[in-house]
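Re: the multi-chain job from yesterday

Posting the exact lines I submitted so nobody has to dig through the queue logs.
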Amino acid sequence: MALTPGRVLCKAAGARTGNGGRNRIVVTTDSMDMDAFTYRNGELCAEGVALRALADQHGTPLYVYSQTHLQTQYRTLAQAMRAVKPLICFSVKANSNGAVMRTLLDEGSGLDIVSGGELYRARRAGADPARIVFAGVGKTADEIRYALRAGILFFTVESEPEARRISACAVETGTIGRIAFRINPDVDPQTHKYISTGKKENKFGLDAERTLKAYALAAQLPNIEIAGLHMHIGSQILTAQPFHDAVSIVREFCRTLKTLHPTFRYLDIGGGIGIRYKAADQPLDPATYAARVVPLLEELGLQIVMEPGRYLCGNAGVLVCRVQYVKDNAFKKFVVVDAGMNDLIRPSLYQAHHDILSVAEGRGVIHGDLVGPICESGDFLAADRDLPEVGEGDLLAVTSAGAYGFAMASTYNSRPLVAEVMVNGDRAWVVGQRETWEDLVRREPLPATA
Ligand SMILES: Cc1ncc(COP(=O)(O)O)c(C=O)c1O
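And the result, structure tokens for all chains:
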């Protein structure tokens, strides 16, 4: 999030604060650094609510989401892409909280899912299945049948055997499986290798030549409708060029596929728009992105689908944690907090950077590691970094934690899943209850004692 004290960070495209205008909100339509977390009276706040108050009321670790930020991001992207009127399908894997989903659904979003569980969550949140696309390399027959019966818009298909399986499930359920093969355009998205998905060495999609053959095969399969083409080249992409390159490649395929298959009408250009994690990051502005891709899409005559995840929710969330101990050894200082890699795994998994802010403004700086309580050396939230000078009991906020944060959390070390709170203006409400120790063992019947 890269917050600097005193900076106006909460910008909203025509968003209302609901608190009589006390929030410092700048109205803009093409903001690229929309941030809902700012210091007021020496306290870090989510919109109009002090994080300290939320931590005291709900305990820590605690995820806090800004509803205004979610709305603003959605509106900004929709506005930037308005020339092609895309169906924006929020990528649920980034944050599958029902209230986050509902907020975006209310904005007009569709959803991009990758499992039966996500479809279940989506339907529970009130999503229209006809605005849901289903991706992923390993869909099971059960998941496919569930999605077919629900009537989703289309499956993005990653292999020929998957197309055959969808066909068989569609015959069995008396439905039609609409499909869009995922093409791997072999472009370098210049991002971390774990979140690069559109190069030929990645497991995702089919190469160009193979894709055309796969469509020919699919055209012969019963109960299959060729609906469109899908691509997704990676995540946290900070320049428009890789998107431009990839769309340039796939649009030629679209022209061919349109002439071969009369039902071909969707081009899904995936997600991947990068956001600001630290001050030096130049996030990809939707207007810049749109300027490079819209001209390529406009005359295709296809319904464009997008699948942003991180862009919509990444900077909508922070993880608030409390300092337990400050310790040092001969080499280093360690700030030990009550949040660990089980709550936010991105630093351990991808060496991801999250800015760390003191909830109380104006702390000095120390150098060291911010670590959690998990019994792993890889359990850190920030390694070898300048950190706020804090002591036992102080609160810290791990910023830009709204995407792939709670969604990737686990109960490793038997640590219950943490609570989640949504804020809008001066209002805050629980959108995810903290698990209890009883929750941890609920699904484990003990063997009978002798
Ligand atoms: C197929 C697909 N679509 C969309 C996304 C969302 O990506 P992002 O959060 O970078 O927008 C992903 C992320 O991995 C993905 O694999």
